Amino acid sequence: SKQQGGNQYQFYSAVLSIGSLDRVALQTSLHYALERQELQVYYQPKVNLTTGQIMGAEALLRWYHPERGIISPGRFIPIAEETGLIIPIGEWVLQTACQQLKQLHNIGFYSLQIAVNISARQFTQVDFRQKLVKILNTTNLHPQFLELELTESMLVQNTEVAIRRLNALKALGLTIAIDDFGTGYSSLSYLQQFPFDILKIDQCFIRNISENSHNAAITKAIIEMAKKMELKIIAEGVETKEELEFVCQNQCDMMQGYIFSQPLSAKEFKELLISGKSL
Ligand code: C2E
Ligand code: CA
Ligand code: CA
Ligand code: CA
Residue 238 Cα, ligand 4 centroid: separation in angstroms? Predict the structure, then answer.
């Protein structure tokens, strides 16, 4: 058994070192990903549930690695955050998304909005607001068309500073959404002190909502409180007809999910808009 223990340890450490080697390799190639143009911004349509029309999209990063193929953001965003690479990458996403949105405005989709995910490292930079202003100026995009998606975990550590930062951003005229709502530790009443405009219900609550009465109850409670706080509500990860019915009946304002569309390349998104597809 002593020997078994030894073998187990060896096996475990081998797995660990493969894991960390892979991490270092990814880290190195992520470094070059930006300049080698391996990164792309994809767009997942957001649909207004009252009109059924596409009202905007969420910008989602994709990495086409020359040897490994597509690497999901769930795998490389944490590495980018740890190494600080998220700062140049995040700026590039903002710049690209604003630029591509402006092109869509120019061909007639002039009320379309874009939502961009912002990581904690970006948000806490002292000159983040300044960088944002520069991007809005160079792309000639009015701030009312830009929405920033933030998660609660990045706001609850230094509440006062976070509130001040958010107010300074909102003063520019852009919109703030709280993403992945319900997965963190804070209550909605606690979050009331933050100046959000939009609440995104996390997809884990939407999943199997017709069979899972627990999820349905939580979602209804979140919607009710968000309405009282006069927040717009978006349901994400809507995959089935039943889930769509639920979010419509329970007065969500917008939806996003595979039942309408997966995230699309800029070209595919433009084609979808031109096709006039609605819910
Ligand atoms: P998120 O912000 O919560 O984004 C929503 C995720 O749900 C996306 O995964 C999207 O493709 C996926 N999704 C949308 N509808 C459905 C559906 O109906 N069913 C299912 N199963 N999934 C759906 P994705 O693109 O893999 O992104 C994962 C996460 O990576 C994002 O979660 C976000 O936290 C992060 N991320 C992506 N792009 C960026 C970025 O540019 N900057 C930063 N900081 N984070 C990003
Ligand atoms: Ca998001
Ligand atoms: Ca989310
Ligand atoms: Ca998420």
Answer: 14
* Tens-digit pLDDT profile for residues 93-135: 999 999 999 999 999 999 999 999 999 999 999 999 999 999 9
> Which phi and psi angles does 118 have, rounded to 5°?
-120, 130
CA-nearest residue for atom 13, ligand 1, is 237
Q: C-alpha dihedral over 91, 92, 95, 96, to 10 degrees?
A: -150
The ipTM is: 0.98
- Nearest ligand to the CA of 86 is 1
* Three-class SS state of 249: helix
The residue whose CA has the least distance to atom 27 of ligand 1 is 73
Q: Evaluate: CB of 177 within 6 angstroms of ligand 1.
A: no
In the block, tokens 């979808």 appear at 272
Residue 193's SS3 state is: coil
Where on the phi/psi map is residue 275: left (φ > 0), alpha (ψ -120 to 50), or beta? Answer: alpha
Neighbour-count burial of 50, counting CB atoms closer than 10 A to its CB (0-12 exposed, 13-18 middle, 19+ buried):
exposed
Cα–ligand 4 centroid distance for 180 (angstroms): 6
